[in-house]
Amino acid sequence: KTKFNITVIPGDGIGPEVTKQAQKALEAVGDVYGYTFLYKEALMGACAIDETGNPLPDETLELCKESDAILFGAIGDPKYDNDPSAKVRPEQGLLKLRKELGLFCNIRPVKAYDTLIKNSPLKEEIISGTDTVIYRELTGGIYFGIKELSDDGKQAFDGCSYSVEEIERMAHLAFKAARSRKKKVTLVDKANVLETSRLWRKTVTELAKEYPDVELDFLFVDNAAMQLILNPKQFDVILTGNLFGDIISDEASVIGGSIGLLASASVGSENALFEPIHGSFPQAKGKDIANPLASVLSAAMLLDHLGLQDGARAIEAAVQKSLELGITTEDINSERSFSTSKVGDFISDYI
Amino acid sequence: KTKFNITVIPGDGIGPEVTKQAQKALEAVGDVYGYTFLYKEALMGACAIDETGNPLPDETLELCKESDAILFGAIGDPKYDNDPSAKVRPEQGLLKLRKELGLFCNIRPVKAYDTLIKNSPLKEEIISGTDTVIYRELTGGIYFGIKELSDDGKQAFDGCSYSVEEIERMAHLAFKAARSRKKKVTLVDKANVLETSRLWRKTVTELAKEYPDVELDFLFVDNAAMQLILNPKQFDVILTGNLFGDIISDEASVIGGSIGLLASASVGSENALFEPIHGSFPQAKGKDIANPLASVLSAAMLLDHLGLQDGARAIEAAVQKSLELGITTEDINSERSFSTSKVGDFISDYI
Ligand SMILES: CC(C)[C@H](C(=O)O)[C@@H](O)C(=O)O
Ligand SMILES: CC(C)[C@H](C(=O)O)[C@@H](O)C(=O)O
Predict the structure, then answer these.
(1) Which chain A residues are within 8 Å of B159, Cβ to Cβ?
(2) Which ligand is in closest contact with the Cα of B190?
(3) B246 alpha carbon – ligand 2 mean position (Å)
(4) Mind listing the pLDDT tens digit for each residue in B17-58?
(5) Percent of chain A with pLDDT over 70
(6) Checking CA distances to A163, which of A213, A261, B151, B288 falls within 20 to 30 Å?
(7) What's the CATH fold of domain B110-257?
(8) What is B220-252 written as a DSSP string?
(9) A37 to chain B nearest CA, in Å?
(10) What's B1-104+268-351's CATH class?
(11) Which of the following is catalytic: B217, B222, B310, B349?
(12) How many CB atoms lie within 10 A of CB A18?
């Protein structure tokens, strides 16, 4: 197969600008390696609310279901964040998409790039050599439990639930990943307080017996938040639930020296979506200053997913080169910086 | 008043060793400034389970209720952590004590000590000058919601709820604290996903109008976990719920260069408890190597609470001096280190 249908969801804020650079990289890969990517654009998030009233229009969902992969930009707009009474919010679009497509596993590699180590708030000896990947459950937990606000508005409730089945399918992916890496899985939970965490601990402990070559250990989430900064090198695969994964994967982004370089994959049994982990960064919207590399690297993860490893490696090499030569946006080097589109041009030319 | 009843709960692991040093510091303060502290020791945690089968014996609870303040060590034992089916766990003792005494507000100062900056995994320019305090809600949220495990053991549930009242009493304390500090409160929540967080945001936004001299801003918890490391100086008072507070306050402990120096207060309308934020560190139990300074500084917070500011400042000065002279345990300086009790001796002698 050399022809692929890609749904592109630029989203909000800087989403469209960075996604465009990722598409340019895909085009270059297509030219060099003989693949054809057919793109269909779709709306999601604040822009979708503005145009259709719905953060995830049916059309978008249908397009995603039919495509081989989804390339997504970013979501969110401050005009909704501070209005707790807004009934429709951009994030609902992304959450619904994850749920409807069954994208239950979010994978976030965390690596310290040599050229960026100086940009990290952490000391070089702490982070150099870090190579971790976070496996975050994405369609369960408190994100998708019942939500209630009492009639008088004085009491709010969120329910969190997990089933053995949800935990097992995640754990299998994490253990399999560990097998081709450093053979260690760390489960992050709060089993000293939460019933759901105790079910995670029990289920994962059982299932670990099927992977005797992989070491399993446990960390309470509060301790994990500390250990990630004190000694990130101790981790190989981190396995965790939806909410804890949200927090610690964003926290872990500081290790690499730039959140502008971190990509992620959200996979299910039928579909897969690729996105930078940074947000919509509305202050930079339309200014051609946003760092496109995380989106470009998401495209590389997308290629890996489609089995096009040659293309994925070509993109990664181009990103590496842009870092070495300093062809980067102002967040990486404010003294000598290039625009979003110039960085994108360099990447696609280099490929 | 110069006579005070203190309930001392040494707890598990290194709890007894460090609490003893804190008591020595209190004794020295008593001698110098003419106060009398009457101590009663009580059981809680794994040691209480071992002796009585109950992580919080009634006797302990009664003693705490009658005392002017509670000095607590640490809780937890690994033999319970990896046994998800244990019906009785040490942590239940602490959680129940917080709930029964209504200790709804946990206060954790985060400061970068000049002498310790080199020990931090963060770069000096990032942390120097950090002076933040975290106000964590302590008797609500998912910690105290309903917990369920289905009969077949295949589905677990945790409920999280918050009421306007619970949020308001916390917010008042945080805004009042901000008034005597840098006049800024940052609410950390996940209002783009959780109903309870939206209630926090709405309630705090309303209440902020009573404090027009204090600036209020908001951060999603994932972003907060990142910002705490990228730029901790941006924060003054951080206000947040129970679970998020647990995670980010442990994360914030890396800023100071040593978790062995961080104290906390848990206050309610009738009672107050003081404890180091570090855990029971069972590997070090009985070895006379644990850092007692966090416990000693908890005693200083206790004195402040009792209105004995002179004693509190004397303890702080002694701790400062021990850092300057390098009279510290091996976690701070492994090349030249002193035992737990020697550090405690220095503190009380200096006072
Ligand atoms: C936008 C938001 C709902 C989302 C989440 O919390 O999952 C984001 O933070 C992420 O991590 O992808
Ligand atoms: C021991 C545990 C239950 C406790 C908590 O999570 O509150 C501890 O981590 C803390 O922060 O005091």
Answers:
(1) 157-160
(2) 1
(3) 7
(4) 999 999 999 999 999 999 999 999 999 999 999 999 999 999
(5) 99
(6) A213
(7) Isopropylmalate Dehydrogenase (3.40.718)
(8) EHHHHHHHHHH-GGG-SEEEE-HHHHHHHHHHH
(9) 34
(10) alpha beta
(11) B222
(12) 32
